[in-house]
Amino acid sequence: MERPQREAKTFCRLCGGHCGLSYSFDADGGIAKVQGDRTNPLTRGYACIKGLTLHEAHLSDRRLLWPLKRTPAGDFERIALEQAYDEIGERLRAIIAARGPDAVGCFRGTQSYLNPLAYALQPALLAAIGSHSFYSTMTIDQSAKWVTARRIGMWGAGLDPYELSDVFLLVGANPLVSLATANMAVQNPVKSIKEAKAAGKTLIVIDPRRSQTAEFADLHVQPIPGEDATLLAGLLRHILASGWEDRDFARQYVDGLESLRAAVEPFTPDYVAERTGVPAEMLETAARLFAEPYPDRRKRGFVTSGTGPSMGRHSNLSEHLIEAINIVCGRLAQPGDPVINPGVAMPRRPRRAEVVPPFREWESGWQDADGYGTLFGERMTATLPFSIGRDTPDGIHALIVDGGNPVNAIPESAKVSAAFDRLDLLVCIEPFLNETSRKADYILPPKMMLERAEITSPFLEVIFRAPYAQYAEAILPEPEGAELVDDWEVFWEIARRLDAPLALNGTPLDMARKPATDELIALLLEGAQVDFAAIRAAEGGRIFDVSPLHVEPGDGDAKFDLAPPDIVEELRELRAESAAGAFDLRLAVRRMRDVMNTAHHHLPTLEKRLTDNPLWAHPDDLASRGIAPGDRVRIVSANGAIEARAEADATLRAGVVSITHGWGGGAGVNVNALTSLGARDPINAMPVMTGYGVRLEPLVIDFDIGHQVRRVEC
Questions:
Q1: pTM reported for the whole predicted model
Q2: What is the percent of the chain with per-residue pLDDT over 70, rounded to a whole number?
Q3: Is 274:579 a contact under the CB 8 Å cutoff?
Q4: DSSP of 486-521, one letter per residue?
Q5: Of 256, 333, 260, 324, nearest in space to 298 by CA
Q6: Closest CA relative to residue 685, chosen from 364, 418, 410
């Protein structure tokens, strides 16, 4: 058997897993084999199908290889890169002069999160021109977590460490597929969860579907989608009624416990069972497994969540209740606890057992014309369609999109699409045509991840359960004749043309000489605990020997705010809601392991595995409606309708249907056509994106047979 001529190690940057990959090349330089890197000390050989097919995106015949400019006729023509930069800079300068800096916005997509230099320089550009108009996927899928951190307060040392925990309670999270659940071990997730179970840890999963993660649960709770807040209020009530709160911790660090106790009192087990479909006995079992103290030692563990609660009804309340359970039970890291990952690529910082007090920046800081503020420096993404083209100081007239597809990702897709047509300038850093880039005035095609040097994101290293980092060289050449950009270059080039000097890691950049990528990475890592040269030299990644770090006692007197008036009022409103609705099914969105949101659906390997995003339903729900697996169905909500192929899925609870988001634009269907931007949360403008009512209708097709039209129900 012929041996490979060259081998190279790299890592995937599609999601937070950062899975190590090993590439083998033949004598002609072609890719002979791709596999998970078994020598990687963190991911230990794991890689999903997305990572194993990365190269197919690089080699795709659909890939854009040159900068494109929209013509007056509406199609695209090739444009030289420097000319594109000049024209973009000139148009941005005119927009800023006429309408002010907030008229220029940026949108950070998922693929920009895993690109550390773009992650840093995109907001740096906006800061340099004085714009508040920064948006990202975070404020359209998990911004409730940010609202909760600002409204209830934060613990300086974080949750109970995963390694010291006895019990995990996951709400609407499936880390075996998403690799993105806070405080969980998500690198090589199957092996990690098996190791946790073998060590005697208890896993409770709240999910309307028996997901891949729920298969490992000691207790799987299947509520009706959209009722997370009701279930969590009932769970908290039972914990408090049973006296399982940590009274010593509450006396020192908590305000509002008695007010919260009164506010959740109406959420009795019987009421919760009626509303959520979860038997009272199961609710009580979940509360006991999580919160009942051990007789001989402190019980450790935590509640954490995925996108499920954050995208559903009463999302901010749900996340508030999740953190309230952690706080009430004292499930937070304590003085002396080891900090399992003190960090590698970021400066060393102490972890203190103290409350970072609430700070409602959306009330006290900058606000748009509708009264929406910012969260951690970002405007709310669901406000973007309303701000585009508006003749107010906050109106958006130019937008730079990096690594995302907001026209697909933001609910009420038709309204979003129409709004993007009102932009005076849309620039997309994007390797393929999608719903957003098709509307662009300029498309700047980026180097893809195997063509660029990169380091595991310093900003996301908190997700590693060890002090780990990896540097990867470019292992694939750029396509012959291509004119590609590194994402960060776009922001540097635009800033140079706007005379807006950028800073990285607090250091002003030389705007007269374009730096090399490694120069910027070194600058980004100034002050890091491990020198960039040492990280770069550790081929394939390393768990570094950094000095141990332990949680220190705190010295502040701030307290958590468990029951601010708006939370108490929302609990009252929740309890007063009628459970009745016009639809007989609830729809829950879900992930597919094979694809990442809107990206790469067209790759050859994935096209063989997936043709679309079907509508999954319990076999009984299909049979009772006369629908067979494979039939086309119409899914109708209060806000719209879509058509999809129906498939049976016995992992769903009866009465629930499920479909994957991120499709459409020529492959499958965009579930956001069922949603609305009309009812948005008053803090973070979150619409309801999962857990809403729908009904199924067998699809009627017209057949023309010998000039006679027959209507057949499928």
A1: 0.95
A2: 97
A3: yes
A4: -HHHHHHHHHHHTT---EETTEE--SSSPPPHHHHH
A5: 333
A6: 410
Contacts of residue 238, Cβ cutoff 8 Å, sequence gap at least 6: 269, 283, 284, 287
> Mean pLDDT over residues 43-52, rounded?
94
Is the Cβ–Cβ distance between 563 and 260 less than 8 Å? yes
Domain residue ranges in the chain: 143-356+557-573, 580-713
What the block records as the tokens of 507 is 């250091």
Average pLDDT over residues 358-379: 95
Query: Can you spell out the DSSP letters for 361-418?
Result: HHHHS---TTS--EETTEE-GGGHHHHBT-SSTT-B-EEEEES--HHHHSSSHHHHHH
The answer to whether 70 touches 440, Cβ cutoff 8 Å, is yes
Distances (CA, A) of 432 to 404, 598, 653: 11, 11, 37
**Residue type present at position 134:** F
CA 536 to chain centroid, in Å, comes to 28
CA 450 to chain centre: 23
Task: Give SS3 for 175.
Answer: helix
| Architecture (CATH level 2) of domain 143-356+557-573 | 3-Layer(aba) Sandwich (3.40)
pLDDT at 369 over 50: yes
Q: State the average pLDDT for the chain.
A: 94
CATH, domain range 580-713: 2.40.40.20
- What is the structure's pLDDT at 666? 80
Closest CA to 51 of 25, 26, 15: 15
